[in-house]
Amino acid sequence: MSDSKQPRNGGQILVEALLRNAVDTLYCVPGESYLPVLDALCDAPAIRTIVTRHEGAASNMADAYGKLTGRPGICFVTRGPGATHASNGVHTAMQDSTPMILFVGQIESGFKGREAFQEVDYAQMFGGLAKWATEIDSIERIPEIVSKAFSIALSGRPGPVVIGLPEEVLFGSAMVADVPAVQVAQGAPDPASLPRLRQLLAAAKRPLVIVGGTGWDVEATQALQRFVEANNLPVAASFRRQDLLDNRDPHYVGQLGLGSSPKLLERVKNADLLLVIGSRLSETVSQAYALIESPLPQQTLVHVHPDPEELNRVYLAELPILSALRTFAAAAEQLEPVESLAWQDWTAAARADYLEHSTPPKPHPQLAGVDMGAVMAHLDKVLPDNAVISNGAGNYTVWVHRFYRYRQPATELAPTNGAMGYGLPAAIAAKLHAPERTVVCFAGDGCFMMYPQELATAMQFNAPIVVIVVNNGMLGTIRMHQEREYPGRLSATALINPDFIAFAKSFGAHAELVERTEDFAGAFERAQQAGVAALIELRVDPKQITPQARLD
Asked: How far is the C-alpha of 243 from the C-alpha of 413, rounded, in Å?
């Protein structure tokens, strides 16, 4: 497609706007409300259209694409029920700061306010879930609104945008000029902030770097690594951002979130300087705002963030630095290194604590079934450095985040908002984006059943992922909380599951059941060699609720 001197319908104009912004993939469940877009895609072979079996899965795939590429993941769903289903991924993208654009079909504008078929006010519905929610009110404004959507999704703190597409806008025709791709400006640190940062570092005795957020690329993570090496700084990852620094690096000291090392939490409390780069220090990272107090932390806080609305919103920083993360990392590595003898032992001790905490213990002799610690140790040993690990929510994730050591950026796909079901759609998106990479999805038996039908998507689009279903026959996280609050009173957490092996095979996938730890390595090797999507069901002891806690 190109600039046209002939009238085009709204679908054609919209697809051209996507092409001009380098969109190569979109995820959707088709609907009659955006038929002109589907038709225009026939003439846009540069855009790969992935049809999912549920709108929630489509929006989660778009989120995963955004995490992997730094570009907005594109999702199309139909009006009403399609939009409500897709809201799951919008919430994930918002809390995870992932660039994403959700396009939703809409009723004809003249019918609004009458509760027409599948009518929803998207600005009202998504107003608190997205960075921006709007509707295109005329066909002539399609290029303008799409350009603004890309700009908002990528600027400052990245996030999701929702655009309603009224029927008359898509089906109508007009001569409309196309516009070039959006160029997004990148913020840079104030010139006075970097000397001040060095001054605060030089005065510290127990500094700690906390990294998180989005907007990183390979060059930025490499610059970060050189900065921390030059200054011998210990680095902790915020919740589910463990892939920002090679976990084998001697400066990496663990993650702050669910299942964090108690020694690391104590170290955060005792730090005299926190250099927080990209993280919002959310409830999970800050341990309910107790580890790092709001509004005035006990530690000296340097907070680097790309969004001016985030700085000083929850925490008053001694030094707030407004900057894109890649720009800050490039500037920080140019700083003259600070003498680090004052914290040499501090960094070494933090690393030793991490190695101890991230080494799986021997399985408890009274526990039956597969030992998850051994599973993670095997995967940590055999997976290539660029393997992608995805997961949703549940206690099974504590083993993944504690015992697997991430090595490269864009290898951890995990929702910081704790969305169940995320892992399988995310894994499919990852494999379709980078078919040469190994992609492993972890899911609990409850988590997997949120979007199990997406095995059909994996088979249809040839995404040979490996799905590991950790089956303990219950919703383990809620059961854990129940046992703490109401011991012995079981309510609403027991599960009766299908035959996962037969279920997976019904799609044509490879599937195996593993009931003994020693059988996992062979099953995983066969799954990798299957050439199609594969599922491994692990039967684990329900009493082993986390690596350190048992129900009994």
From this structure: 9
Residue found under tokens 């960094």? 347
Note whether residue 544 is domain-resident: no
Helix (H, G, I), strand (E, B) or coil at 204: coil
- Residue 135, pLDDT > 90, answer yes
Task: Give the domain-ending residue among 356, 377, 397.
Answer: 356
Q: How many Å from the N-terminal Cα to the C-terminal Cα in the chain?
A: 64
pLDDT computed for residue 365 by the predictor: 79
% of the chain at pLDDT higher than 90 = 86
181 is a domain residue: no
Number of structural domains (the chain) is: 3
| Cα–Cα distance for residue pair 509/496, rounded to 1 Å | 22
Q: Are residues 324 and 472 in the same domain?
A: no
The whole-angstrom separation of Cα 253 and Cα 509 is 39
Alpha carbon distance 325, 213 (integer Å): 9
Using a cut of 0.90, tell me whether the model's pTM lies above it.
Answer: yes
Quick check: helix, strand or coil at residue 124? helix
CB atoms within 10 A of CB 191: 8
CB 404 within 8 A of CB 377: no
**Which amino acid is it at 132?**
W
Between CA 510 and CA 416 the distance in angstroms is 30
Residue 357 has pLDDT above 90, yes or no: yes
Over residues 469-511, the pLDDT tens digits come to 999 887 778 888 788 889 888 888 888 999 999 999 999 999 9
CA distance 194 to 201: 11
CA dist 212 and 305 (Å) reads: 10
The dihedrals phi and psi of 134, each to the nearest 5 degrees, come to: -150, 175
Distance CA 454, CA 460 (A): 10
Q: Note the pLDDT of residue 1.
A: 42
